[in-house]
Amino acid sequence: MNENYQINTNSMGFYQDLDHLDGMGLSAVSANLYQNKKRDDLVLFYFRKGASFASVYTQSNIKSENIKWNLNNSKEKIHALLVNTRNANAFTGKDGYKSINNIAYLLSDLLTKKQIEDEEEPKKIKIKNLLFASTGTIGEIFPEDKILDSIPHLINKIKYVQNKYIWVKSAMGILTTDTKPKISMEECKIAGTKVKIYGVAKGSGMIYPDMATTLGFVFTDAKIGGNILKKLLKKNIQNTFNAISCDGDTSTNDMVSIFSTGYVNHKELRTVKDAALQEFDKSLNVVLKNLAKSVAADGEGASKFVTIRVEKCKNENDAKKICFSIANSPLVKTAIAGQDPNWGRIIMAIGKAKVKINLKKLNINIGQFKVIENGKISSHYKENDVANYMKSSEIIINVQLGNGNKEFEVYTMDLTKKYIEINADYRS
Amino acid sequence: MNENYQINTNSMGFYQDLDHLDGMGLSAVSANLYQNKKRDDLVLFYFRKGASFASVYTQSNIKSENIKWNLNNSKEKIHALLVNTRNANAFTGKDGYKSINNIAYLLSDLLTKKQIEDEEEPKKIKIKNLLFASTGTIGEIFPEDKILDSIPHLINKIKYVQNKYIWVKSAMGILTTDTKPKISMEECKIAGTKVKIYGVAKGSGMIYPDMATTLGFVFTDAKIGGNILKKLLKKNIQNTFNAISCDGDTSTNDMVSIFSTGYVNHKELRTVKDAALQEFDKSLNVVLKNLAKSVAADGEGASKFVTIRVEKCKNENDAKKICFSIANSPLVKTAIAGQDPNWGRIIMAIGKAKVKINLKKLNINIGQFKVIENGKISSHYKENDVANYMKSSEIIINVQLGNGNKEFEVYTMDLTKKYIEINADYRS
Fold first, then answer.
1. How far is CA A56 from CA A169, A216, B24, in A?
2. Bond into B152 cis (ω within 30)
3. Architecture of the domain delimited by B305-424
4. What is the ipTM, given to two decimal places?
């Protein structure tokens, strides 16, 4: 574990201690995938009695081999999610796909043995009960042998009882160039019965030769079927992982999944509309949002965490377009890095978003300061005040179109010289 | 004139000497719009007998006041194009619009007097015979008085006979933070008669408080009507000014126009399909392309000029999407700044372009080097060779999808620490 890392602190204040989650096993080991440093790089999230699940994958038309494998195979209850770092298994072709297949066969064999040893009602674990996530270099030969060699050790180390340390170890084992582990949790009730929602993520490590792969994994001891999980994830991903932007780039390997171990006995849930799910729905959103925010906050070279909120729009799509137009604008992002209240660039980004604007109704606030009111510079605007505010580590930009009541919020970071250093100078 | 500027040189080799163009008058003066330095900031392109014209404007939904004014007024023969720098007249509201109107009235009055003094058949010049371009700060009060005060001097200085010096002076007078004037010319024949096509442009000066405004103005002594010019411009803008990308941002003030003085007697042209126009069509494309390329080459902080060529696509739109996905990717652009042959990032950008890819048919070349062949790393690929090539000041990335015969080409530059310095650190 990174010695510099301190439990329970994180610049965004999102960090929370995770504890035991019934039905899970956790293990993180080093398969020596990093040549120059010894670190955990292979993490197993194991589900003793299986878990219903749902997963969303990258929208890129070039998908990594593990994602293709998941799409072809992982349709039933999941017994294990294996995550490796250092190698993305992307652009590795048939060989990369075959590697996952070989690893899946070994993993299913050894986990079946583990079931026989440890469980009262052991299940035969099939390859279609497995799920794979990879992050790291693309185009390099996938280190199948190193991973195969490490699997017995990985399984041997499975912890059936978790504490905050094994969660942090696991959360760190899936990182690439992130500077901090990303962990979040909520507890809530389903029809009066308490359940846990735990989550870990990794973000925007883009140092050559890595990619900006985002991984997010959420675990609950609630008993929720795959179809309901699918709807919950699809709904809650929209304003969480789909509302962050680091540099507008998209990875071959992005993947966010939710697993339900079903260990808690609560009222049976038949549809996603069941009122008993309301609290869970909200809490899941909080967990996903905290993970997503911590990914944005730890974006490469980030010196400031930026929230773009666009309100009073005709529809959510308009709000979203303007949010991302601002969040992805290098001119806005460099102005924020330069602590410069350059509202002209915000206006430029609003203008190019391809949304109809009635200038006379446009309001822009930076932090608590009114900058533009009804399409004109606010009479309250004092550049010094806003310039002072721009020195904060968290910046909020609020835009109101004034033609409706829909809104959207996006999380991003500033664009700094450090980003260029990380991404341009690493090898030269 | 900037002392460091040397006639007839330019890093891209695009620079050419312009000469006299019949029917034109040129004038560039300082209206003291820049407080701390004396430079030309007001330029008049005057057409003695008027010029038929066509103009395309920014697609941003927030347009500057001069663009709005042009859209409302400038529909007939144009007698003068007035360009000011330092102030974009954007987000200046009714006052900014009124300023243009006041300037238009003075300009039309004084140019009418000039007509009476100088022309055999003087014309009354109306405000609808005028066109305005602005570039610079947005949201600042438009310096109407300074410009009004300078117009008599500006008109007084009109040169009816041009040489390369007055063209360079004019081309420099429209710049903001560009490091070089942008000039291009072609001569060609319309049905055996020689005509000239001259062009000047300004590009991506984005130092606060300026915007990435692109201005391009093309002048010809050919006799071509507005309707034909419109079609020619619309067609030729696609693979020239619409094929450059500096940082994906769009200005409130972008404007590209073509003017035809009609001084050369050649075969009358009735439609854009007239075979006599073929040569002109091609030459216009060369002029626009050279101007556009020089804008990209002079993009802020640029250390390398980058050509992205995507070929063998099902349709041009697919090729264009992939071109811009690569050209706008900060990860690709930082890799190029770092002289790093990071083809993984190119693949990432291809994947996210929302175009169907058959990986097995994908080829990627960097310069003359084959990197990806039929979806696999080329057996000829030697990283050292390509790394060496990446040290060049001009980089060509060639992508072939292998599912058609359509293509597109985009021009951009790398993303350097200097870009961040210019855009983030200028005020702090």
1. 24, 10, 62
2. no
3. Roll (3.10)
4. 0.73
Neighboring chain B residues of A355 at a CB cutoff of 8 Å: 61
At residue B124, does pLDDT exceed 90?
A: yes
Q: Which strand ranges, in their side-by-side order, compose the sheet holding A376-377? A: A244-245, A406-413, A305-313, A394-400, A363-366, A369-373, A376-377
Q: A138, B344: Cβ pair inside 8 Å? A: yes
Amino acid found at B276: A
Q: Which of A58, A135, A137, A213 is catalytic?
A: A213
CB atoms within 10 A of CB A118: 12
For B213-252, how does the pLDDT look when each residue is reduced to its tens digit (9 = 90+)?
789 999 999 999 999 999 999 999 999 998 887 665 667 8
Q: Are the Cβ atoms of A250 and B417 closer than 8 angstroms?
A: no
The residue ranking higher by pLDDT, A422 or A103, is: A103
Given the structure tokens 């020089």, which residue do they identify?
B294
Instruction: Note the helical H segments in B157-210.
Output: 164-173
pTM of the prediction? 0.80
C-alpha–C-alpha distance, residues B243 and B238, integer Å: 6
What is the domain partition of chain A in residue ranges?
24-297, 305-424
Domain at A24-297, CATH homologous superfamily = L-amino peptidase D-ALA esterase/amidase (3.60.70.12)
* Residue contact B211–A344, C-beta within 8 A: yes
pLDDT in tens, B396-413: 999 999 999 999 999 988
Work out the minimum CA distance from B228 to partner chain A, whole angstroms. 29
User: Cα–Cα distance between B275 and B198 in angstroms, integer?
Assistant: 22
Considering only CB atoms, A377 lies closest to which of B139, B352, B377, namely B139
CB atoms within 10 A of CB A93: 15
